[in-house]
Amino acid sequence: MNNPLEISGSGAVQVWTINLPEVGNAITGKDVISGFEAAVDAANADTTVGAVILTGSGKIFSAGGNVKEMADQTGMFGLGPLDQRYAYVDGIQRIPRALGRLEVPLIAAVNGAAIGAGCDLAMMADIRVASERASFAESFVQLGLIPGDGGSWFLQRAIGFERAAEMTLTGDRVDAATALQWGLVSRVVPHDELLPAAHELAERIAKNPPHALRMAKRLLQESRTGSLESTLAMAAAMQPLAHRDPEHERRIAKWRTGQ
């Protein structure tokens, strides 16, 4: 059996590839969920990692939940309502919690359709780069469902409440050009240039000192939901650590000599 989350790459950039093309790179299986947790913990522990690229194998980024299991009422979908509630908490909701504690910048290289929980997965990234073949759909409502994985939290922070409401309440698909216009992605590139473009961006990020990168990302996260005062307090606590980082001192010395 293939590893559901393949990790590759060299140097400071890792590539995480969801490798379940036979089920549309669905992210509800226990193996893929634990794979995300293990990948996050390993990246956090390795300060040589400066950036991570997340993509999907084949033609789809991720179709989200396993609709066949829903139709067949197998796995968690065969449970009663109370047990199913805990299955969400101890299942797919572990992915946003894991990615929420990822210390290094995460770039989603969206190579195709990102549907339902797959759309939400892309929203969990810090930056999104899309192939011209990519599309996004917060499609839960079309199946009589709601976003069960935190999508209502992530999507509106990416594109604002009104556009998130339009996507959530219609379930309609948004193409790559519209995604760029709405700010859902930072850029759209020809399909064959997707991974090279994501790598180029990741390398520009990862060339910066690793501790500063991790603190800067944490400060950005705090700034999304915290008050100005809490953000300033965190910055005041972090900056002295940055000032005493040997890499900061090395770069300041290099600047002083004009190199």
Task: Walk me through what this model shows.
The protein is an alpha/beta fold. The chain folds into two domains: 5-207, 2-enoyl-CoA Hydratase, Chain A, domain 1 (Alpha-Beta Complex), CATH 3.90.226.10; 210-254, no CATH class. 49% of the residues lie in helices and 16% in strands. It is built from twelve helices and ten strands. α1 packs parallel to α4, α5 packs across α6 and α10 runs antiparallel to α11.
The largest sheet has its strands arranged as 1-2-3-5-7-10
Number of strands: 10
| Helix/strand class | alpha/beta
Radius of gyration: 19 Å
Q: Main β-sheet: number of strands, strand sense, barrel status?
A: 6 strands, mixed
Architecture blueprint of SSEs:
Layout: E1 5-8, E2 13-18, H1 30-45, E3 51-56, E4 60-62, H2 67-72, H3 81-89, H4 94-100, E5 106-110, E6 113-115, H5 117-123, E7 127-131, E8 135-137, H6 151-159, H7 161-170, E9 173-175, H8 176-182, E10 187-189, H9 194-206, H10 210-225, H11 228-243, H12 246-256
Parallel strand pairs: 2-3, 3-5, 4-6, 5-7, 6-8, 7-10
Antiparallel strand pairs: 1-2, 8-9
Helix pairs in contact: 1-4, 5-6, 6-7, 10-11
GO biological process, one term: fatty acid beta-oxidation
Protein name: Crotonase/enoyl-CoA hydratase family protein
Pfam families: ECH_1
